[in-house]
Amino acid sequence: MLRDYQQRAISALYDWFRSNPTGHPILELPTGAGKSHIVAHLCQDIMRENPSARVLMLTHVKELIAQNASKLREAWPNAPMGIFSAGLGRKDIDAITFAGIQSIYRHAKSLGHIHLVVIDECHLVNNNKDGRYRKLLDDLMAINPSLRIVGLTATPYRLNQGYLTQGEDALFDDIIDVVSISELVVKGYLSPLRSKLPPKGQIDLMGIEKVAGEFNQKQLEDAARLSEIEAVETIIEYSAGRSSWLIFCTGVDHAQEVAMALNYRGVTAESITQHTSKDKRAELIAAFKAGRLQALTNCNVLTTGFDHPGIDLIAFLRPTMSAGLYMQMAGRGMRIAEGKTDCLVLDFAGNIERHGPVTNVTPASRSKREDGEAGDAPVKACPDCHELVLISEMVCPACGHEWEEKERDWELADRDIMGVENTRIMKVAEWEWREHVARKTGNHMLKVTYYPSSLTEKTVTEYLAILNLGWAGDKAKQRLLFMFEKSGAERWSNALPELCHILNRAQPPAAIKVEKQGKWDRVLGTEW
Length: 528
Prior knowledge:
Elements: H1 4-19, E1 25-28, H2 35-49, E2 55-59, H3 62-75, E3 81-85, E4 90-91, E5 96-100, H4 101-104, H5 108-111, E6 116-120, H6 132-143, E7 148-153, E8 157-158, E9 162-163, E10 174-177, H7 181-186, E11 193-196, E12 210-211, E13 214-215, H8 217-226, H9 228-237, E14 245-248, H10 252-264, E15 269-272, H11 278-290, E16 295-298, E17 313-316, H12 323-331, E18 343-347, H13 351-355, H14 366-369, E19 379-381, E20 388-390, E21 423-437, E22 444-452, E23 460-464, H15 470-487, H16 496-504, E24 511-517, E25 520-527
Parallel strand pairs: 1-7, 1-10, 2-5, 2-6, 3-5, 6-7, 11-18, 14-16, 14-17, 15-16, 17-18
Antiparallel strand pairs: 3-4, 8-9, 12-13, 19-20, 21-22, 21-24, 22-23, 24-25
Helix pairs in contact: 1-2, 2-3, 9-10
């Protein structure tokens, strides 16, 4: 049985295909949202509607291949399914094929006429047409020019590209966002994160150069190793009651040294790097999941394709300019587990300040990528327990420290990793309705601009795609009907220009509730 947002994702995908006869969308789903369940039901739907259809499910690691295939087998025991993965020791092709890109990219002819390709962790697909993904997809499109591609990811952006829909050679055309981290946390499907600004062990990035938009690897590792002992001691200091620690390091030597320092202080720890053999890696991960290891350190390994719900402490000892990498690291701690109330994030790398709360991350523009400019949702660190709390709070929720009024002027050091205070109420002076035509799809919709009462605030825009089919269109219609009733609009019309004329003469709301989502504002509700 699919969760409500999982079914919503499939419906939104169908709506997109109906509105766009060509093109390839991305389904953006937070880590832990259950992408494999969505894929399983999508495959089942497609094959029942068209038994001659052929679907290819692509990803980059054997663990995800096995996970996605197992979820399909659970949902549909007799599914016509094949697995093509050297790592799993199988090379079977069937109506639905789960494959590793490293194994399959030269075998387009063997796959034949594919109707749909689904790419898990599609942020790994770049705009380089010489890459393995692009080679296979180009070969499959030569066989079937009508091939459709769907990407799945929690982070639809890359460091040097921005959003995956950007760039002259971008593979994807649109991003379908159907559920937020906030919704999944509120509904109990994800575990919340807590963040602290460690009082010592911070990595000094002064003088670190940037290469292709990211910190220089050698310089970064040298800088991180200077403070690793203080960082290890701080991790232990704040680890009370937490049994499963995942630590992200800057390099192989750094990861090994941090693990050694933890062991020296009585913490059972091991490191996993690109030099760790597959058998040894599997052995260490099994020990970690079973609780025989308290901590795993790693470098560029345990970000995607690795999940252990019990992780209740994450330490960032790896600064990054990549919003995607930051989200993938933080996401390792958001799965729910019995007895787990939250996951503590200790940020020695300045990543939270650099990229903002996980509920509000967007890829930086090129102008901001160079200096790592942070966002504008300030917090302060508690002087007693170093909990990161919103600047407006006067009592620390973790230890009860009370700030005096004059302490409001503390220098801002960071901001809360969950971005819990990410909404605001804007008083409305007036509104303006217009017909809007989407530039890419040509779809017609309504656009309402809310003008604030305060001269210091900016206008907020809301789009209502009432002509769309399916869930998206139904939701927009319900919203419009609500506003018609509340605003006292005189009559209804099925013509968009006439609707705009009617609503422009109606009473606007007294205020709107607005949530910041990246550089955009999303209207959550209206008050009359």
